[in-house]
Write a structure and sequence with these properties.
homodimer, alpha/beta, Aspartate Aminotransferase, domain 2, Aspartate Aminotransferase, domain 1, seven-stranded mixed sheet
């Protein structure tokens, strides 16, 4: 028996050797591939928002996989290793699942691809699209929206919203009744939106036109851009040296407003609706009325055909928190003049700011609202533009040409809808989302208030905004170190990557973002590391003064 | 023992009864849901390109699932049933998988969601994105493209392409060297594209501006649209009464062109490069030169900063086939004047027209090219804009502001990239795609030539274009029955749905589209049914003359 075994080993040796060789060469190939990826990436990929000249291959992150909120990153040191990095960019503000939701979503994606692949949407209905529409209307669209229009991303959702708003405006102004009136049509080609400076709504031309001039809209980016808006500087709020304060733009710093800034006893006070009766509210109201009045032509016709705002937080514009009182009054002033109101909730929607819709924080409702990013839990693109019944009715008529002729091939694709259905249900269920306060749809405070306050007191820190899943920190900087193109934060962020936190700055603003289900323990530990890195950087290299701009 | 069993049954009866009740009530609920779906859909969905007034709930198709090329449609007749319908719209031109690829994709989607979810793209690399970029550059970008820029859909891919082209144009015209020269910058705000009338590039404003006025771009849709192009009427080709013929636009119908139309001995003849030396080619060349000359300003500066075309087939514009000789000459004339050339291959790419890229059919290469739809096999949104090295270099510089600052949250999302990698490999592998001719990357003829010819001879048919996976049929119509808003084909298509074919018209143009792997037997049987329906409709209701416009 023993001889037999030895004989068998002898005879099989070639097989074992060959198996070993195959395994070894496969492993070697895989390792080689991982080693080569940064160089290949630098040679053939074209990353968005990236100056390739500034990205040497050693700065490229090789992502082997992700689990919940963490990337598994391949690194070459003395040996190959896979290390965890917290995805503090929330993969560009989309990321939502913890590890358990990711597993559930994976199962659903396989199922949905097998059951539906993608099926065509117009005049058809299938379960994932219908269920998602129902969930949206019961949730983020509750009490005001009656229709759901699907597209692929925030930018297209905004393009659709603008088309809806303009049609509603033309309908209310009875332009639609007389399309043969050439002078009326001519006048309406110059329609404008009101928007707030620093807001961002996407990179397709229509969405760009609704934004004030910024690095994203410059001549170098798209020579066709001209900015078709009345762009107002908004009053902002933030925590500065441990206190929540109001900052008024220059145009409002008149004696009427009495104070250059106001302090608040707490963040909650900022959102209280009893501010509506304050002197400041009156000042906001007359300021807005005045601006609207100035934008009428000689016959009294207003070219302002829509208001578009990011409720509460202007994200890409540097994570600025706008005074919700100002936004609420702006919404009401517009609606009272039949100017349709669009909320761009692409960033703020779905618990990003602690509430299902950030309209709840503003205590008012739009006519049209845009959602994307976190809607699918952050795994796959899908967007929705919600509209009120009055908006929808402006497209109903006796010709196909009156319908909204805007579409993308994958409108309401089954996999996106299924991912959204699963994620929204998961986020709003207190058995799966431990961050919900009781049976409410509100998240508990995720960022330790004491720690946030301490960070804001550090001399290297100019301001902090912590709200919902977001904690943004503007570093104290001057001159060319301020603004989108600044490289000011790069050495700090490099250090944080070594500490297991993957961040990307908006100029001199850094931020950390978690999912709606991320535990407060994880949030605390991440924020502690960031605070430590700020402290260390400012001691070692004098962050606040000495970082050389590249 | 037998008594024991009877006792057990007696004791367990309540359990069985309750199980039966649960199963019965679950089934009843499911059936009720399917019954209610059309009504709910009509109440809360807002379909793209759809006049809701024309869609009563009995016209809504309830799609229970799909398998390969077929929908499983729920119908209520005397009893509930699920019936198969061939997805002849190819779910709006995206659909590619046969049943076996769909299963493979489902497996990959589950795996990719579990492994990556979505991970952030800029400055990062992960296997699906890198592998897809490699496959694109070896395939559709072979010999000309060096970079891949990812986005979500055809419209965003075109917006990106336009930004690339304009920058390249500014770079070549040395405008970038002197941005302080205000008059130069001012002049460049009026940049235009050349495009062909009837082309369609998407519904976001930038993509719209590159299209000639059409129902999709009207004042009712987006008052901001003005059409920033030199729009040329293209010469078209099609099969008419059994012969492939050329149709010249009015502007070319001069004595120079000698003939009002030319016939071809076969479709292949149309694509032959020996046509470059013909008299017609000379006429095209001088016509194009003349048009370009007229678009210079007094100082000789040309405002034409890009050419954008759909190679060979203008899809949404009514499935028009443009004379490839004209497009080839247009491309060459532009490139010789340093006008960057964009191919919009969103519809035509990935074997839609029988070749991996339809640039192969034109025998020339672009500077920038846009892909989407079929790229992921048709299950999930993803787009790519490919660019030459010269285009990429116009964005490299010493400031982030010179980088291309255009992005969408799900840029290069892992699931989309993985679906595309699997699909492209599957389509180009002759062991998985039986339609490939030998080891080539060309599809065999999918539509029976004899049958196509017969259809074109029918008096109710005005023209036919059969190429690759597409067979388009323009019905003979007059007056308001012609064009996008026409309801002319609706009764014919209703009949075909009863025959198991789901179609949607482009006005009086109907079409059938299959996947790159669909068998010729299936194609033949579908086309036979369509021919039979045309014959029957024209006999019974006098299709060509008597259908009342709704």
């Amino acid at each position: 028996m023993s001889d037999d075994l030895i004989n068998w080993f002898d005879k099989s040796q070639a097989v074992f050797t060959s198996l070993k060789e195959i395994m070894f060469s496969t492993f070697t190939e895989r390792m080689q591939r991982l080693h080569d990826m940064p160089k290949k990436a630098c040679n053939i990929l074209w990353w968005p928002f990236t100056q390739h000249k500034f990205v040497p291959q050693e700065n490229v992150t090789v992502i082997d996989s992700r689990c919940g909120e963490n990337f598994a990153v391949h690194k070459v040191q003395s040996f190959d290793l896979i290390s965890q990095q917290f995805d503090a960019c929330a993969s560009w503000w989309t990321q939502g699942p913890d590890a358990s939701l990711q597993i559930e979503l994976a199962r659903d994606m396989g199922y949905t691809a097998a059951r539906y692949g993608h099926v065509m949407f117009p005049e058809n209905v299938y379960e994932p699209a219908l269920e998602l529409a129902e969930l949206l209307l019961e949730g983020v669209g509750k009490e005001w929206a009656s229709r759901v229009y699907f597209s692929d991303n925030g930018s297209t959702a905004v393009e659709i919203a603008l088309k809806m708003a303009f049609r509603k405006f033309l309908f209310d102004n009875e332009v639609l009744l007389d399309l043969t009136n050439a002078s009326m049509v001519e006048r309406c080609i110059d329609l404008k939106v009101i928007a707030l400076r620093g807001s961002y709504h996407g990179d397709t031309l229509g969405a760009m036109e609704a934004q004030a001039p910024s690095p994203y809209t410059g001549f170098l980016q798209q020579p066709w851009y001209k900015g078709r808006g009345l762009f107002l500087d908004p009053p902002t709020v933030c925590m500065h040296n441990g206190l929540w304060k109001l900052y008024l733009p220059v145009k409002m710093q008149t004696e009427k407003f009495e104070l250059e800034y106001v302090s608040f006893s707490s963040r909650d006070e900022i959102f209280k609706s009893n501010r509506d009766g304050s002197g400041l509210a009156g000042c906001y109201r007359s300021f807005i009325s005045q601006e609207l009045l100035l934008n009428r032509d000689s016959s009294g016709f207003s070219h302002i055909a829509a208001l578009i705002i990011e409720p509460v937080i202007q994200a890409a514009g540097g994570m600025q928190m706008v005074d919700p009182l100002f936004q609420r009054i702006l919404v009401r002033e517009c609606q009272s003049r039949k100017i349709p109101v669009i909320f761009d909730e692409v960033f703020t929607g779905f618990w990003r700011l602690g509430t299902e819709s950030s309209a709840e924080l503003l205590c008012c409702q739009p006519d049209i609202s845009c959602f994307a990013k976190l809607m699918t839990g952050g795994i796959i693109p899908l967007a929705a533009t919600l509209a009120s019944d009055a908006v929808f009715k402006a497209f109903v008529g006796d010709s196909k040409l009156k319908a909204l002729l805007h579409g993308h091939s994958y409108s309401a694709h089954a996999m996106g809808c299924m991912a959204a259905v699963k994620s929204i249900k998961w986020f709003k269920d207190c058995t799966t989302n431990v961050n919900l306060i009781g049976e409410s749809r509100l998240l508990q405070e995720l960022w330790d208030s004491e720690l946030v306050c301490q960070i804001s007191l550090h001399p290297a820190v100019h301001r902090v905004v912590a709200l919902g899943t977001l904690c943004a920190i503007e570093l104290q900087a001057e001159g060319s170190n301020v603004g989108y193109a600044s490289m000011y934060a790069s050495s700090l962020l490099k250090k944080l990557r070594e500490d297991g936190i993957y961040m990307r700055p908006l100029g001199n603003v850094i931020y950390v973002m978690c999912g709606p289900c991320t535990s407060t323990q994880v949030c605390r530990s991440i924020l502690e590391k960031i605070f430590a890195a700020i402290q260390e950087s400012s001691q070692v290299s004098g962050l606040a003064t000495c970082v050389v701009e590249k």
